[in-house]
Amino acid sequence: MKRKLLLVLCMTMLLLFTGCGNSKSIIIYSSMEEERNQDLSQKLKEKFPDKDIVVQHIGTGNSAAKIKNEGTNIEADIILDLETSHIDSLKDNFADVSIFDTSSFLDGVNTSNKYITWTKYSVGLIIDNKYFKKHKLDIPKTYEDLLKPQYKNLIAMPDPTSSGTGYAFYLNVVNIMGKDKAVEYFKNLKNNMREYTSSGSGPTNLLKQGEIAIAMGMYSQGAKDITDGYDFSIVELKTGSPYNTTSAGVIKGREDNSDVKEVFQWLITDFCKYDKEVYLPAELFKEQKIMIKNYPDKVTDADMRNIQDAKVKEDLAKEWEKVNG
């Protein structure tokens, strides 16, 4: 009798351990900001209470490096908000997303069968109105204006080699002036630069701390700061607003997991649309509302040729060493 009872207990424990071994979390690598990731995590819990879904924040450069090094063996199942130039260069590691329903997107938004456009974000100048009024400064309207001595130590820009926001400015100047003149321009601009930040949100954070008067940053962040009570203004350059794009995809082989498929479909339809309405107002969907206060009513795109070309970005990163090497 005791032997039979022991056998039953052993069988029960074996089944329990086997069951635990078969359960697997769905891992999402997200390059979104903390607030957006927290919102995503909460909505995932509400939508999929029976699924174990983990959202891990990882910067776009680090995310790309992990995919490049680990390939399809990476722990992540889904990649969100990865700079498009990165994901395009690594597309062999991603599943064919034509199996997903993208009918809610505007025509022409998605141009690859390896990834889905996650966002398009515009950037420009965000200025401290109080500082400008106190010191009677002219508002800069062109890249050349930023070279004026009156702005010495008042400007912060994200480093183009670590930030998609910084790269958007850099590429735009290259497209306007040509590579050589652009490099010379940024060498001269360095005289007025207080800091090159590692992240795209760095300049606006410095602006809020009163350490600078001009942030080269994202319109969405400037709009949020104004809504939060900061006396800032968003300034579009005469040559238009630079922009960059990010995309989302499923690691090759994970599309065979029905849970991963279900979660990714919800991400690219429901949450992506919500994200654009609440956080980053890029027009990606056929039916989309803009809920962000103080965001510019009209944004004119700057010349952003080659924004998704990884080879161009790699070459320009080497050129940047001449500026900030």
Structure description:
With 325 residues, the protein is an alpha/beta fold. It has two domains: 2-119 and 245-278, Periplasmic binding protein-like II (D-Maltodextrin-Binding Protein, domain 2), CATH 3.40.190; 121-243 and 297-324, Periplasmic binding protein-like II (D-Maltodextrin-Binding Protein, domain 2), CATH 3.40.190.10. Helix content is 42%, strand content 17%. It is built from eleven helices and nine strands. It has helices at residues 2-22, 34-47, 60-70, 84-89, 129-134, 164-177, 179-189, 202-208, 219-227, 258-278, 310-324; strands at 26-30, 53-57, 78-83, 116-128, 155-158, 193-197, 214-218, 232-235, 243-250. Strands 1, 2, 3, 4, 5, 6, 7, 8 and 9 form a nine-stranded mixed beta sheet that branches. Strand 1, helix 2 (34-47) and strand 2 (53-57) form a beta-alpha-beta unit. Helix 7 (179-189) crosses helix 11 (310-324). The longest helix is centred in the first third of the chain and has 21 residues, at 2-22. The chain is globular and about 60 Å long. It starts with a helix and ends with a helix. Residues 12-22 have low confidence and may be disordered.
